[in-house]
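Summary for the steering committee. The consortium agreed at its last meeting that each partner would contribute one worked example illustrating the joint modelling workflow. Our contribution is presented below. We chose a case with several input lines so that the handling of multiple components could be demonstrated. No manual editing was applied between input and output; the record is shown as generated.
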Amino acid sequence: MRIDTKGRFSFPGGTHPPEKKDLTREMEIQRGPAVTEVAVMLCQHIGAVCQPLVRKSEAVQAGQKIGDCDAFVSAPVHSPITGKVIEVALRSHAVLGRSLAIVVEAFPYSPTKWPSFKLKDDFDENNYSAGKICEAVRQAGIVGMGGAGFPTRVKIEPNPRLPKEILIINGCECEPYITCDYRIMLEWTDKIIAGIRLARRASGCSRVFIAIEDNKPEAIEVMNAALKTCADGEDIKVVPVRTKYPQGGERQLIKAILKKDVPTGGIPPMIGVVVLNVATVAAITEAVISDLPLAHRVVTVTGEAIARPGNYHVPIGMSVEDLIEFCGGVAKKSAKVIMGGPMMGIAVADLKTPITKTTNAITVLTKEQIGRAKFARRQTPCIRCGRCLGVCPENLNPTKIAHAVKNNLLDVAESYYISACMECGCCSYVCPANIELTGYIKTGKIFLARQKKKIPV
Amino acid sequence: MLKDIRVSCSPHISERLSTCSVMIDVIIGLVPAMAAAGYYFHIRALVLIATCVIFSVATEWLCNAIRKKPNSLDDFSAVVTGIILALSLPPNLPVWAAVIGSVFSVAIGKMVFGGLGANIFNPAMVGRTFLTASFGVLMTSWTVPATVDAGMPKIAPENVVNARTQATPLAWSKRAIKSELGAKEYNEEHFKATFTGEVGGCLGETSVIALLIGGLYLLIRRTINFHIPLAVLLSAFVFAAVFYLVDSSAYVQPFFHLSSGALLLCAFFIATDPVTAPLTRRGMWIFGVGTGTLTMLIRIVGEYPEGVMFAVLLMNAVTPLIDRFCKRIPRGGKPSTK
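What follows is the complete predicted structure of the assembly.
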């Protein structure tokens, strides 16, 4: 039977940035460099910051838990390498500015070990109880690997107040350039399927959808083929969704597949839905079956300026600089190093910034490409063309919010629902007047947060 | 290895769009109408368009110089204002009046508010209204296109002194209402003439085909949304149809209203001026319906034969209110905690 890979499901709004996935879509997942030093951030997730469990000059094993926290919404961190803690110090963090990290130096005589994992043929998720799966996910420090980094255990654990029915596996990867989820779907298919079954068992969901954008027909076919061979493959459905940015946002994905709206300021479990990234479910499999912690992840190193773009399995905590060097450095004149994709990623100022659990890509853009971005061109007055309103997936009024923030009218910004913005960047992307709407909105949110905490702006 | 790196807010890429490209799109959309004007009114059209554009641009430059602001001519908005103003002027308007109109348009209509994006009223319509109020006679004497044979009986009988002047189709319809002569005076031939443009009227409004081509171009390029044009035309049509159905002997058929006067120019190029139109979809519908209805109200009930400029200006004035009442609600509903 010919598998239909045409995506019919979509959401209102959104835009179509150039995909640029060809740079790395044929690159198999390779092992990253052997690292001599990692800086494991104590805050790589949403929720409480971890406390260090190790002291300076203490020896740590690969996979040892080095930071944890008692709070419910939190996830421990682990050392990816065997070595010695040389310091617990501040390091540049992509989002938080500077944050505490445990810096581990590898012992010179211990080669970097890569987690080896093979799914056994006799795998049956019913051998694992829901409680055990949740505990393993928690102990492995698994967080949402698509971007936000919400602790996965909190998501999948059954909650009597918010019963879950539908599990959506997010393989959209709507950001331009990034291909790590795509390669994971092609190469780690069995791990994903096993992880889906584990997550389904833990969360008690009855229906499972795997959402993949229709610009990845191979992934759709591979997943469908894998589902045919497994026992209960009929309950899991692959849903091709339309290629559109930000299709991979969980609110947009739920809207596209289930035609339901997640309440503003709410979370998907409020309507009985759990959304997990494909990389996250692969990590669940490793954690539950082999007790492997989340200490490595697949990162796409891409961009026109990179000499050898590709998808690499690297230890979490290695610096951006090491990884770029491993990829042959930059070939052309680079101008911007972004952790993440070009739409939502964060430009780093310090190349020593360590990779975290949520870093799905390192994109290095050339001057020519950022010449097209907003800050490189003169900002002209808003002509109220309404393009930002048309593309806003959350149905907001970006220009009104941005101009309210610009004029320091935070109450007006709030009355236009600034907090409902998810900062996808569509409005800035289409603005003909080169106004950095997303930037203003982000600034406004920070000001509002400060105002609520009574910190002078 | 990496020294010269930049940091900025996401997104780091952007669409190749600028205010300038949007304005150039509008100018391209106006080309068919300008060509039609040039075809029917020959040198008069070219002189008026050139005058309006030159003086609009010069006024904007001067205002920026006086206010010590950076030059904003590169966004081409002054050119658009000049062209639209020129297209809404009668062909035999003296050049000095066109100069006054374009200077007023840009200086009072736009620059006193703070330039592009800050103006409340459509600058071209401000200029045209000023001219209508100041030089009423000049603004309402119409030349028939040079392609029309002056000896044809269609030329209005009261203009025998100057056979080159005639009432516009709308003025005729007005006269029909007044004198209760009935709709017979304007026949099918008249109606057809409005499509090609062989009728009296303002420079750019006579040829329906040229305006439709330009409007279609803007719609395809997504420079304008379909909401406002559709709302204007639909509401005008419905309004005219109601009157036509009530008394078809006194009122012309609705299609006639759509094809004559500045209604199409308004629907595609004037009302859709993004700066003075509402932002939200719902607001656009209200704005369009308001413009169309007010135009027809002025045309049919009011004293003027043409009501587009007043309708647009009136709706411009309520645009901020419309925007305020048509606030967008986030997709997930209003946040519960507030």
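The interface with chain A takes residues 1-2, 4-19, 21-22, 72, 75, 77, 115-118, 225, 274-275, 277, 279-281, 327-337 of chain B (CB under 8 Å). Chain B has two domains: 19-139, 164-322.
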